[in-house]
Amino acid sequence: MAARIPGGPDGRRMLWINFVDKTGSGLWLSVTALYFLVVADLSASRIGLLMGLAGAVGIAGSPVAGRLADRFPLTRLLLAVQLVRAASGLLMLAAHGFWQLLPLVALGSFGERSASVLTKLYAARVAGPDRSRYQAVQRTVVNVGYTLGGLGASVGLAFGSATVYRGLLLADGLSFCVVAVLVARCAEPPSTTRTVASSATKCPPAAARPAAAPASPWRDRGYLGYAATDALLFLDGSVLRVGMPLWIISATTAPHGLAALLFVINTVVVVLFQVRLSRHGRTPRLAARTLRHVAACYFLGGAAVAASVVDDRWAATTAMLVAAVAFTFVEMYQATVSWELSVALAPDDAQGAYVGVHGLAQSAERAAGPLIMTTAVIAAGPLGWLGLGTALAGTAFLQKRMVLRRLDSTRPVTNPSGLSVSPITVSDN
């Protein structure tokens, strides 16, 4: 199996980095609100405000990290970010009250979004043309890590003491220290925006190699349009985390335990099928055509949830199970397509900046998705779910048309090395 993982030793090491990272994150994410309630003694309203403000700060992590990745060595940036995340978690153990916690939680949120973009860029560069398959393997590893972390947190929750909550936060902070050690052992991947060579290699004078200013994603309306539609297509996350569990409890005759089972179904399906579906992201055009599958699954999922209001326990349960599988396939298709297109549609000399801006799509979904689910979709009843599925199916077809038009207007660049970026030497100087 190891020989089939793209990226060589560094690619495999980055998988371990993701596994340790997400296992630690799984320990903390499951008890975050409870920690603030039991240990920090914050009210529910204060907890909501704390996490909301921290999340808003975290949104800036994606574009900032992406921009820096075009100017500085990727491994050093990722090492610094992981140390920041570790410091944030460990210092929280000694923090008391809202105002002491706010900068630390915000710093952790900023670091989490930054690490997400930097890890994606590293994987895209080190895996080259096999980045789609690598992404699928990585998502499988991430799901396993989150699952193990969640199970560990569940054991802790059985005790529910302040000491246990502190222990889970400590384990999360220490996991980032382990990740930092692993990152320090990774080699710098190729990049078109920097020259890295050994000290024995003589680099030509800078004056002999004038470079044009890199493209800005903020002035690229086509890419911004793609990122905006992707923000909508990422709503599957809020559907699975917020919309469907609330719908099961409030609007169907399905057993309430099904709400918890949705996460198990999601994880199992992703582990079984994500790598197989990676073939849909082998090329940008294939990824664009795969958006029709995203559209079909969105429509099926929305229609199935709408149908779950039938006054029959088994029929409602079956409808919700169909919807869960459909939205999980949306997640897997969308992850593959988005990974490939966010990199392929970006110019090589500004890949980090572009991918960083694209990272705002997921940040926007995290911020606005739950609100859309509760105030628009669920409030509108079955028609709300049917409308959601139809609207997002239409968005997928619109994005397909936008992407194919952009690809048609861009001349292909021959890259004999097969890297996702042009081959170039890398130095410690």
Could you give the topology of this structure?
Layout: H1 8-29, H2 32-38, H3 44-59, H4 61-69, H5 74-92, H6 98-127, H7 131-159, H8 162-184, H9 221-233, H10 236-251, H11 258-273, H12 284-289, H13 291-307, H14 313-344, H15 351-377, H16 382-409
In short:
This protein is mainly α and 429 residues long. The protein has helices spanning 8-29, 32-38, 44-59, 61-69, 74-92, 98-127, 131-159, 162-184, 221-233, 236-251, 258-273, 284-289, 291-307, 313-344, 351-377, 382-409.
Protein described:
The structure is a single chain. The protein is an all-alpha fold. The protein contains 16 helices and no strands. The protein has helices at 8-29, 32-38, 44-59, 61-69, 74-92, 98-127, 131-159, 162-184, 221-233, 236-251, 258-273, 284-289, 291-307, 313-344, 351-377, 382-409. Helix 3 packs parallel to helix 6, helix 5 packs antiparallel against helix 8 (162-184) and helix 10 (236-251) runs antiparallel to helix 14. The radius of gyration is 22 Å and the shape is globular. Residues 195-210 and 412-429 have low confidence and may be disordered.
